[in-house]
Structure formats: structure tokens, C-alpha cells
Amino acid sequence: MSANAPRAAGRHFLQIPGPTPVPDRILSAMAKPTMDHRGPDFGRLGLRVLEGLKSVFKTKDPVVIYPASGTGAWEAALANLMSPGDQVLMVETGHFATLWKTMAVKLGLKPTFIASDWRAGADVAAIEAALRADAGHAFKAVCVVHNETATGCVSPIADVRRAIDATKHPALLLVDTISSLASIDYCHDEWGVDVTVAGSQKGLMLPPGLSFNAVSQKALHASRSATLPKSFWGWEEMIASNATGYFPYTPATNLLYGLDEALKMLHEEGLDAVFARHDRHAEATRRAVRGWGLEILCREPKHYSSSLTAVLMPDGHDADQFRAVTLDAFDMSLGTGLSKVAKKVFRIGHLGDTNDLTILGALSGVEMGLALAGVPHRPGGVQAAMAYLTEAGRVRMAQAA
Ligand SMILES: *Cc1c(COP(=O)(O)O)cnc(C)c1O
Predict the structure, then answer these.
(1) What tens digit of pLDDT does each residue of 101-111 get?
(2) Is residue 307 within 6 Å of ligand 1 at its C-beta?
(3) Strand 308-312 to 110-114 pairing
(4) Is 137 within 8 Å of 113 (Cβ atoms)?
(5) Spacing, Cα 278 to ligand 1 middle (Å)
(6) How far, in Å, is the centroid of ligand 1 from the Cα of 376?
(7) Domain finish residue from 231, 246, 267
């Protein structure tokens, strides 16, 4: 926005699939003086957030907090577990899975990449076949993105676990939940995940700047013999300091104030209610998209994402031109199409601190933007979303009565 642009009234609609809008409660929690991170008060905060996080990952394992974006936590997972030249099995669900694979190559690993057309979650049968073919157990890890933010497709992690077990392969299971944690149900312990990678700026409703590794005992054990260089990312020192609520280097103190508040908010609402709310807004969005006569990128209904919906543009229309119109006319940011689907899709983020009226406002902006940008569509998608949310509201009222 230029310095002399007129003031935009109301709030900006940040409808990208992360970063998500940060609630006022979290912003105020962070607007406190930075404390002594070696002082007595800090340890209590540290212990509280480290413990509170476990319930969100659904784990009894330690959760490591890094002052880094999600990319840092990807690197941490690989750097702690792998040795130079190790083979890993990775799944091309979309842009983010591809970036993780590229990182593995840069770190000196040898990924095998199961290809996909970016329109579904991970193909579990293909993972199982690759593991069966690996009789010598060369693969040290299977790496899967739970919610592929580029496509709006969710991978069935419990099924991936069952496939690994069915082949009796010893590979570790590494899962990226950066855009699913606290939005879509996820169970680190129950699904036998060895490292869960997460970030602060999506379902956790925080600004960017924190990321996480939940680490299984099997992974901790494996990290002791892994030989990739690790220093800043090392789990061992971090977990040792964390036992008393402290960190081996300066933590992102004010983001931890925010995390403390975010965990409180998630617990006040209840995780099941949080997931149900995300499911509802995702379904309302899909009904709107179908109402407009547009196509959802995710082909498999069983893989639909509750965090975001990627929408295919009609042929001959540029998704980024359309996004520029919604930004200019209605002060709303929608997610861009990434790499393979650049200009072909736009993404509607419906994760984080969203309510029924926010999502209806966002969908109204999309419908009006489609008209202004001259994109062929049927009007009435918002009406379909509203009808769905009205019925959902009626059910909630009846349950409360
Ligand atoms: C956002 C995202 C990332 C990247 O995280 P950064 O915080 O930008 O480093 C990785 N994976 C997924 C699935 C994401 O949604």
C-alpha cells in the first residue's frame, strides 16, 4: 500500500492458509515487557507451554520449540536423525513436500520421491510397495506432509503407519503438520509418529517465528547415532534444559507469551470443537465453490482439507489477476497458486481464528471478485454456504437447549 493510499476501514481479510489472523487476546498477551529468560518466572512459563503443547500434539513425548519458521523444524527433524547419504522415502503431495525433498538433497540425503498430480493426499499403497521393495531396509525415514497447503489435500497418516507396520520396515515416520496442527485432528502418539513438525503461524493463531518437533523415544534414540552435523537444532541439549522450563539459548520470549495464550484459547474452546469448526467452514467453502460452478483442486473427498480449499480457475483465466482484484476492491488476501499450479488455482484459507461470519465475509469477497474480474461463474455460492451454516447453527442451538 502506498504511503498516501486512503485508510482502509475495518480489518484486512487475511484469508491465506497461513499466516492466519492473530486474535487480539494473543496480540495483547505478547505486548508485555520481555522477561529474564534465566529468571525464576520464566521457568514456570516454559514448563506451562511445553506441557500445554503436548495436549495439542496428543503426545506424552517431548515437544521441542525453536525460534524459527516451519522450515527450520523440517531441517531439525532431518539433521537430528540422518547421516550423510541416508535414503529417505518422501511423497510428492505438492509444493511443500517438494521443498522438504529439496532440503533433504541439500543436506546430503538421497530421497526417493513418490510422484503425484497434486490432486490427492499421499498414496498409501505406493508407500507400502516402496517399503516392501526395500528388503535391505535402506530407507531410514518416511516423510509425509499431513495437510499439503499448496493443494488442500490431507494425507491419511494413520494408514501410512499401518502400511509401515504391515511391511515390518524399521523406517522412522516424520510428518509435517505445519498447516494442520490445531485445525485438523492429529494424534502423534496413537499414530506412531516419530517426529511431528509444526509451526506457529497457522492453526495455532500466532505470528510466524516459532516451530516445533514432537520427538518419539525411538527418534531420540536414533538421533544419538545420526551423524549429520547438528548444533543449533540439536534435540538433546534442548530437551535437557526444557526439563526445568528453560532453553539452551535465548527463546523467543514474547512469542511464548502468545503461545501460552493460544494454548489457553484452544483449551477453552476444546480441541474437538476447534476441529468441528474447521470442518464446518471447509464444508461451507466447498458448497460455495460448487455453487459457483468452479472445481475444487482436491479430487478425493476423503482427502479434503479443513484448513484450506484450493480452487481451479476456468481455462484462460489467471488466478493471480483475480486475487489482485479481491485485494484492490475488498482488501482481502487469498492464497496464490504455487509452482506447478501457479496462476491456475487460488486458495481460500479457513484455518485459525475464523467464525461463521468471517468465512461468509471471505466467500462474499470471492463471489464479488469473480464478478469484477470477469471470471465465468454462477452467482449464489455464498447463498449455498449460508444455507449450510444456518442449518449447522440450528443443530448447535438445539444441542445447547
Ligand atoms: C507453511 C508451510 C511450510 C513452511 O513453513 P515456513 O514457516 O514458511 O517455513 C511447510 N510445510 C507446510 C505444510 C506449510 O503449510
Answers:
(1) 999 999 999 99
(2) no
(3) unpaired
(4) no
(5) 19
(6) 32
(7) 267
CB of 186 closer than 6 A to ligand 1? no
Ligand 1 binding pocket includes 199 (Cβ within 6 Å): yes
Interatomic CA distance for residues 236 and 257, integer angstroms: 24
Establish whether residue 178 lines the binding site of ligand 1, counting it when its CB lies within 6 angstroms of any ligand atom. yes
Q: Global pTM?
A: 0.98
**122 and 50 within one domain:** yes
Question: What is the largest distance, in Å, between two alpha-carbon atoms of the chain?
Answer: 66
Beta bridge pairs of residue 142:
89, 173
Instruction: Tell me whether residue 4 is in a domain.
Output: no
**Closest ligand 1 atom to Cα of 145:** 13
Q: Is 176 in the pocket of ligand 1 (CB under 6 A)?
A: yes
Question: Quick one: which atom of ligand 1 is closest to the CA of 17?
Answer: 15
Q: Is residue 301 part of a domain?
A: yes
Closest CA to 140 of 228, 57, 58: 228
- Give the end of a domain, one of 205, 236, 267: 267
pLDDT in tens, 293-348: 999 999 999 999 999 999 999 999 999 999 999 999 999 999 999 999 999 999 99
CATH classification of the domain holding 359: 3.90.1150.10
Grid coordinates belonging to 370: 469473480
> In total, how many domains does the chain have?
2
Domain of 249 in residue numbering reads as 24-267
